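User: Second chain of the day. Same drill as before.
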Amino acid sequence: MIDQSVKGFITRLFSASQVAIQYALLILSIAKQNIYLLYLTIWTILKSFILFYPKQLMKGSSLGKRPKLAYDCDMFGSGGKPWTGGLISGHMTIILMLSTVLVLNMNEIGKMNESIIPGLLIVITTTGLARYYSNCHSSIQIAFGSIAGLLLGLVVYMVEKPLENLERFKKDKENIYSYFS
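Assistant: Same format as last time:
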């Protein structure tokens, strides 16, 4: 049996992927003055607003209730009992949203590098397992978060298409995806 302090450290480490990615996007969008990264950062923030009401509506339902031992489950790991429902996992929504956007864009430009798939699968799997083993979400809440992330990723991808008519947006986007090819 794993010591609870070790288990807590591991689950918090892998649960931190959402916040780490958000901060990385924000810092890089400012440091590189990249409009496309700012666009993705805005979507990671909008995700919280988009999921707020569905989480509140489902909070009292059997699907929306968090596991009994849920503690320290918010985005920032600030401690305490969660005040929002567990359906839909926001961590999984962010990870799948950004992964979907990445894969769709790489496929579209014909530079899909299959070697990124294992890395994405590791991040997706470890985040899901961390949310489950930290008692923050049930498996169905994680699955709903993953589905929401896929759907939101499609929306982000479709919304960026008209923005590609802006020269700066298109150039910044191409710059970002050149790192993945």
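DSSP finds seven helices and no strands in the chain.

User: Great, on to the next one.
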